[in-house]
Amino acid sequence: MPSGPNGALSGRRVLELAGEEGAYCGKLLADLGADVIKLEPPGGDPSRGTPPRIQAGSGREESLSFLYMNTSKRGVALDLQQPEGRALFEKLASSADLVIETLAPGTLEGLGLGYENLRQANARLVLTSISGFGQTGPHRGFRSSDLVASAQGGAMHVTGEEADPPVRMAGSQAHVAAATVAAASSLIALLASSGRGEGQHVDISVQEVVASVSHICGVGKWLDDGIVSKRQGTGLFASVPSGAYPCRDGSIYLMVNRPLHWTALAEWVHEVTGNEEILDPMFEGPSSNRLPYREFLDLFISDLMSRLRVEEAYREGQNRHIAVTPVHSAAAVAKDPHLASRGFFEEVDHPTVGRLTYPGAPYRHSETPWRIYRPAPSPGQHNREVYCDELGLSEAKLRTLQAGGVI
Amino acid sequence: MSQGDRPSNEPRQALAGLRVVEFSAAMAGPWIGRFLAWCGAEVIRVESRKRPDVVRLYVPPWDRELGIQPRLSPWFTDWNAGKRFVTLDLRQPLAVELAKRLVARSDIAIENYSAGVMDKLGLGYEELQQGNGELVMLSSSGFGDTGPCRRYVTWGPNIEALSGMSRLSGFPSRECTLTQYAYPDAISALHGLVAVLAALDHRRRGGGGQYINLSQYEATVAGFGHVMMEYLALGQEPERMGNRSRSAAPHGCYPCRGEDRWCAISVATDSEWEHLCRVLGKPEWQSEPRFASLAARMEHAQALDDVIAARTRVRKDYELMTALQEAGVAAGVVQNVEDLARHDAHLAARDFFEQIEHMAKGVVTATGIPLGLRGTPGHSGRAGAGVGEDNDFVFGSLLGMTPDEVERAVAAGAIEPADEP
Q: Is A282 on the interface with B (CB under 8 A)?
C-alpha cells in the first residue's frame, strides 16, 4: 500500500536502485510520505550484510545500518540483467516521479535504461544519479568509496590532529551528505518538473558534495589569505577560543565567536580560578583579536574546566550564554534528557528482529508529521503487491518470473 | 525575477518566481537560502546593525589594518551570494510591520535566531501565517524549539561533539576528532533544505503552508543514525575505526612521497586485492596466509597497513592513484584546497568552481553548489552586497512604499541606513 495520507510527499512515487551510497536519500523521502520502492537484485542488496548485525528469528541476521537506512520503503526484487527485468523497470519508471540510482556511470545507459530512454515513456520523470565522481569528466569511470570521496573532496585533509594521518568521519558522512543533497536536488527537479512538464537528469558527485560541505576550508578562504587549511586538532582555525577541554569526568566542547561570549567566559574563568590576566581588554572583541593568543588563553580555560565536572561546566556555561556542550558518547546521546523530552527516538517493530529504538525525525513539519511508516522491507517483500496489484501482472506470470530468476 | 541580467538563451531556473525571506545569521540558516537563490529564488535577508552577523564582522587576514570589512569575507560569499539585503531594527514596531508585509508577499520564511526570539518580536509563525496562509516557515536552532535546552547557545562544532560524532570518529587513540569545517552546520542546513522543499511540494499539491522546526542536534544525529543503532540495539558503544572499514581491507590512508601527502585506498574484493598487489609490485602478498581472504586481511589489518605504507611511501600520490584506478581499485589522493582548485582536472572539466561577480572585489572564485541539475542549471548572482544594499528596491518597488514613507521609517529608526557603496 502506498504510504498514509499525511506525509508532505504522499502521492509521490520513487524507485530506488541504490546501494548504501543512496539509501539515505530514499529514507529521507520515504519518511516524508513518498512511496519509495527499493529495487534489489535477486538475493538482496549487498548492504543487507553490512556489519554490525543483530540476531533475528530463525538463525538470520539483519544489518543494523540497513534497518535504519531503509525505513518506510517497500522492497521489490528485480534482475536488470534479464530483458524481462528491464521491461518491468521501464513499466515501473513510466508511472514514477523519480528514480534514484547509484550504479556506475554509464551502466543504466548500457542496459537501455538511461535518462534518454526513460524520458520517452515519461517526460516528467526525474532521474537522480549518485556516483563517486559524477556522470561526466575524465574521472567518471573511477571507483569510489566513502573514504575515497572524503579524501578527494578535501574533507580528510582538514579532519583530526596535525600529527596523525588524515581521517574520515564515522558513519560514511560523504555518502550521507551526498544522499541528502540528492534528496534536495530531486525535490527541486520535481518542483521544476511540475512547472515545466519536463523532468531532468540530476548528476550528484559525492566528491563535489564533500568539497561543498567542507567549503569553510575551501577555495574562497584560501584565495583570501593564501593559507592552505590543515588539520589542527579540536580547535577551529578562525575561532579563539575553541576546542575540546578535559573536565574531571570527561570533556566539553567550547567555542567563542561573539565579543559578548568572550566577556562572559573571561569573567567565569576569573571568578572560579582568580585569574586576572584573562580580563585584559586586549583579548576583547572579535575572535581575530585573540588569534595570536590561542595557546595562552587555552591554559586559562583548561584551568577552569579541569576543576569542573562535565555536567557543571555544561549547565553553568550555558547559564552564562556561552556555547559549552558535552563531548557525548553514543550512550549519552541515547540517554540525553533533552532528546527524551522531545520524543526524538522512535520505537519500530520489525517482523524478525522485534522492537528496536531508532533515531527519529531530523525535522518536524506541523501539518504533515514526519514518521517511520514501516520497518525496512525483507527482500522481495512487496513483489506481489507491486507487480500484481499495481502493475497488473497475473499470479501465473509472477510465478514464471520467479522461476526465471527475474524476481 | 531576482538580480542580474540573464542572457536570454538561458533556461528558466528551477525555482524562479519563488520568494524567500531570511531572518538568519552565520551559516546553518543562510546556507539554505544560498541553495534556493542559486536555483533562481529571490532571497531577501533581513539584517540589523544592532546585531551584526558574525560573517559581517570580518577582518581581512591579509590586512588587519583595514579593520572590520562587512562585504569581504569569503564565507559571506559562500553563504549569501545571490541574495538581497535589507536593514530593519526589529525592536521597532514599524520594522516588525514591514517585515510582516514582506513575509506576506513571500513563499518561505527561514529563521535561525535564538529560540523564542521571533515570537518575542511578534514574528512567530502564528503571527506570520495570519497574513499568509500559504507560508512555509522553517525555524532552525541547535536544540529545537521545545525541551529543557531550547535556549542553549551552540555553533556547528558544539553539535559535532553533542551528536556523538566527534567521539566516535577518528583513531582509537584520540578521544575527540573534529572537522575544521563545522560539518553539522552543513548537514543540518541540507536537511533544512529537504524539509522546506518537501513542504513546498505538499503546498503545490494544495496542502497549504506549514511550520517546520529543525534541531541541528537531531538532524546531525539522524544522519549518523546507522552508527547510533549499534548502541540502541546492542547496548554497545561503536568502536572508533579511524579509516578502517568493517567490510573491506585494506581500507586506509597511506603515506606517499613528500610532506603530508597521502592516498586513500579501499579494497573490498579479492580481485581488487590482487590488482593492488600487482600495482604495488608485491604479487607474492597474495600467497601469504594472513592476507589470503578478506577475513584474514581484516584480522591482520595493522600488519597489512604497515606493509602497504612501506610500498606507497616512495610513490607519488597522483601517480599511485591513477595506477590503482586504472587497475580497478578505488583510490584517491587526500586533496587539500590547493589540489582541488589547481590540480584536479576532473573538477575543472566539470566546471565545479564558480566565478561570481563581487561588488567590492570584482570577480571571486567560490566552491560550487553540487545540485547537478542538468536541465535547469543554477548560478550565483552577485556577492559582496553591503548592509541594506536593497532597501530601495525592496521597500520601494516590492512593497510599494513612497519615498516619504521610507523616509519616515528611516527617521523612526525602523529602517536602518544602508552602507555607502
A: no
